Amino acid sequence: METKDILQNLVSGIAIGSTYGLIGLGVVFLWQSIERINFANISSAMLSAYLFYTFYSEIGMGFFISFVLSVGIVALYGLGLRYLIHEPITKRGGGRLEFVVATLMICVLWLNVIIVFYGGLPKPFPPVFGKATDFVRFAGVSLPVVYFYIFLVVAILMAFLHFLLRKTLVGKSLRATAQNKEVAQLMGVNVNLTTSLAFMLSTTVVGIAGILLAPIYFVSLELGGGSIGIKGFSAAVMAGLIDPYGAVVGGILLGIIENFSTLFISSTYRDVISFLILVAVLIFKPKGIFVWSLHRD
Amino acid sequence: MRVVNWKKILLIIALALVVVYPFLDKNDYRLYLANRALIHSILASGLVFLTGFAGQISLGQAGFYAIGAYTSAYITTRLGMPIILGIVCGILLSLGAGLILSIPSFKLKAFFLSLVTIAFGQIVYVLILNLQSITGGPYGFFGIPPMKVGQYYFDNKGYYYTFLIILVLVILIIYRIKNSYLGRSMFAINDDVIAAEVCGINSKQSKIFAFALSASLAGLAGSLYAHLAGFLSPEPFTFFESSNFVAMAVVGGLRNILGGTIGGVILTFLPEFLRFRGWENYYLIVTSLTVVLVVVFMPNGLGNIIFKLFRGKTHSHAIHKEITTLRKEKEGGTK
């Protein structure tokens, strides 16, 4: 074991982990606002990756336009989730379970839609974040360039979200609604608007995570099912499902743990270890592992 | 003049059709599907019990299904034991796993519990893929012996009647439990845990029992599937299969003792009916879309609609409606 290996695993763990964090963020935004978990959370990642692939590789639009278009469509999809799924279920007296089953089936539905229209085989992701063979080398460590793009995008996104949640009125009302819906409503917060915003934010961040993950996992069905979504849940659970910052930190922690368990134990049981972490956190620390997150302001 | 009770006659005709079905349909594939539907019904009945009666969610039911299937396959194929022993061991092992999984349910509420069960299902799936010496991994598990009585090896007809009898027994058992002290206490816990505990009901005990029963039914279904198919691969044990099972229970109707059967049969046959000529590619989309629509627009499930046609508005139906309105008020009122 050399310092080189440890450093390499640490950096890649942080990079992959921060995308798990974004997926967890999607869970957190929705939980804050309606106390439901969208089990089709990860589908947004797959949708945006395939949309980006369509716009960029098949139609040939520029990077920026494709990115904005695909993330924008996914944001609108979030709004659709609210008005086509959440509201009708609530109106008809359906409880949590109906929401669980409906979102699970939406997850399956999107997978089937993608299989029908794009086929089951993975598509190559266009080399917008550097080629797979591009490496950055320093101090004997070589890291794929894509990791640095991930850092960059996640940093910009986090700065934006921090600004949104802390400095703007919209963000403040979002946080107020998360703390207590009734009181927020009494204080003149437009709960209808914040709920819509929460749905859109939730799908948007997961959509961005999908585009970031595509160079690593390819534009494949892996992005819309499988274990990545559950890792996103793990990240959210580490934050007690309520703390956006905790979700990102939790995701990064998970990425690091995962990489080191590959290094020290075995790569086959990497996923088992991260699922066991999920179960352990839920059983022993159901309020999240970041105590600071609960006592903040 | 005596009034003819058409509803009763229809019911008898339907039951008779179920009994003679294997002799009416000469299509072997459809008969195989019917057998799958019966297996799914057994499993979904367990889920109806767990979710509808005891109020717990499990999204890892495919995990128990897999444990039952691979245990029975291993014991009969590799160890050469009789099939009945394999099935019993499959049930017992799933039961054990269910008991372990019931522990988190004491502490955790709905969504958190569902995350634990998802993790359980995924762990089982990864183990199937990687423990190749036991499960055959992605290459599959071959040569599982079919069931037989004396010298008669079961064909699809034989399986049909065996599974039908098992399903009827399962429903009878659930019916008996539903009307026992345990069943009533489960309904009480489902409505209000604190009030039930104040009345002296042991909520832990009934949660353990519900998990154990639904897990062993899933194990039973799995071991039956292993012998029906004769070959196991990891595909039927994914997370999506688990969500499919939950969908069966919900589509059938969660507070309905026949909900699991109705949902299991409908969701097994629906994809096949939707394979119209020229539209084959879209049947999977339409299937999942149908389930979404049913869940969103008929939260009480199709089973209740069928029952309503038969019984009209009954007393118990009115009570159930009242309970749901009360619960809705409660959910809306408290934070």
Mean pLDDT of chain A: 86
Radius of gyration of chain B: 20 Å
Q: With helices defined by DSSP (H or I, 4 residues minimum), what is the helix count of chain B? A: 15
Radius of gyration of chain A: 19 Å
State the order of secondary-structure elements of chain A, H for helix, E for strand.
Answer: HHHHEEHHHHHHHH
Termini Cα gap of chain A: 43 Å
Distance between the termini of chain B: 59 Å
Strand order of the largest sheet of chain B: 1-2
Largest interface chains and counts: A-B, 47 and 48 residues
The largest sheet of chain B is: 2 strands, antiparallel
How many domains would you count in the coordinates of chain A? 1
Distinctive features:
heterodimer; A: 297 residues; two-stranded antiparallel ribbon; 12 helices; 74% helix; 3% strand; disordered C terminus; B: 335 residues; mainly alpha
Q: What's this model, at a glance?
A:
The complex is a heterodimer of chains A (297) and B (335). Chain A is mainly alpha-helical and 297 residues long.
Mind explaining what this structure looks like?
The complex is a heterodimer of chains A (297) and B (335). Chain A has one domain (3-295). Helices cover 74% and strands 3% of the residues of chain A. Chain A contains 12 helices and 2 strands. Chain A has helices at residues 3-34, 43-59, 63-91, 96-118, 145-167, 169-179, 181-186, 191-217, 227-238, 244-264, 270-284, 291-295; strands at 135-138, 141-144. The longest helix of chain A is centred in the N-terminal third of the chain and has 32 residues, at 3-34. Chain B has a domain at 34-239. The model of chain B has no long low-confidence stretch (mean pLDDT 85). Chain B is built from 15 helices and 2 strands. The interface between A and B is large, with 47 and 48 residues.
